[in-house]
Amino acid sequence: METLKFTNGWLDLDKKRIDEINLFNEGYKHFLDQGKTERQCVTVSIAQAEQHGFRPISEFEQLVAGDKVYFINRHKNVVLAIIGQRPISEGIRYVVSHIDSPRLDLKPSPVYEKCELALMRTHYYGGIKKYQWASRPLALHGIVVTKSGRKVDIAIGEDDSDPVFTIPDLLPHLDRKVQRERKADEVLKGEELQIVVGSVPMTFDDEKIKDTVKHHVLTKLFEKYEISEPDFISAELMLVPAGKARDVGLDHGIIGAYGQDDRICAYTSLEAIFDIDTPEQTAVCFLVDKEEIGSTGATGLESRYLEFFTGELLVRQAGGQYNDQMLRRCLWQSYALSSDVNAGLNPLFESVHDAQNASKLGYGLVLTKYTGHGGKVASNDADAEYVAALRRIFDDTEIKWQTGLLGKVDEGGGGTVAKYLAHYGINTIDAGAAILSMHSPFELSSKFDVHELYRAYKAFYMQAL
């Protein structure tokens, strides 16, 4: 009789496999460093995709098996597809990851001066512990679009010669009445998430200018980027932790970095689709936006972009022989991995987990049958038949996998894009990596798990279900 037992993936690895894992993770760290925003992830992904033979869908009038195509949606979504041997109408293999991460966005009118310091006001994006963002170096990334339509890319704080930005926290000598009596989620309040951007006053000929530090900062921005204060209204500028991904621990087994939720799945699904030949069913790697705020908007999965690009694939394969029922039939016969992370078992706070059902770093791919909260609310709940098929694939290909849940019942919970995929009738399950310190500025993942995700996604694309 077989019993359930998950084991650490590092055990019994030979030197060749360990070297392979370490080399793969160097590429992953570079991806994290280059893609700290959705737009940057899209740019990096497309550059790599073109090196692997992918071309814009507009270059294809008729799709045949083996064609490699890509779609871009508003610079925040990427779709890569390899056309399979079977007709697209018979179903697709989707691996869907999100490339947005919690951060601080600048407000439309951010700059002001107080106490002879220039500051910028922010609005946090996604679920964060606000106090974690104070007194640490932050980098400013994004774009500004001027009234004339000129686009300006901004990235300040990553090079050693760049300045950085920070939120000044209150010293412990003075925080007794102001902060210590607050609840944890109000130690630093939303309106207190303001960054220091300047301190040097400047003499102006115009005597009406009173906020000379603020205007000095605006002058610097205009001199370097030719942008002015009203241009912040048509900008997407965000603060992210400055610095590169790093190895953690004397054994170099863990990666610490910002944005691993969910770029760990984005990178591995990209590398998986780059490394497969013509699959039986069409393979799709879909990188989406806005998951951290509910998958809303035209670039989130609540939009109908999945229908748009899937319909476009069908049209270009079937020519004039297309109707809406083909799209519905295709989706209903498709399979998806909602590739998102899970909460790894934290040794400092083990009490919030059900240890028997918690995922662990170093144990490989995490299959999460359901998420949600308080009675599986807002959850996709994968069919038993689909879970069994995935177990068979991963066992047959000797891929380490485990199960996981987001904490104890009634302890918390969370959601992913899975329910939006299941809305179309697509067989869907969450499949990602265990992460420690999730949603913090410095998340932790196992190098073994990163490489095992890649192997799992590759097997999912290629193996029969």
Automatic annotation (TrEMBL):
The protein's required cofactors: Zn(2+)
TM region positions: none
Gene Ontology cellular-component annotations: cytoplasm
The keyword NADP belongs to this UniProt entry's keyword annotation: no
Keyword Protease applies: yes
InterPro entries: Peptidase_M18 (IPR001948), Peptidase_M18_dom2 (IPR023358)
Enzyme class, UniProt record, top EC level: hydrolase
One GO MF term: zinc ion binding
Keywords for this protein: Aminopeptidase, Hydrolase, Metal-binding, Metalloprotease, Protease, Zinc
Source species, domain of life: Bacteria
Stated family: Belongs to the peptidase M18 family.
Protein name as annotated: M18 family aminopeptidase
Lineage, broadest ranks: Bacteria, Pseudomonadati, Pseudomonadota, Gammaproteobacteria, Vibrionales
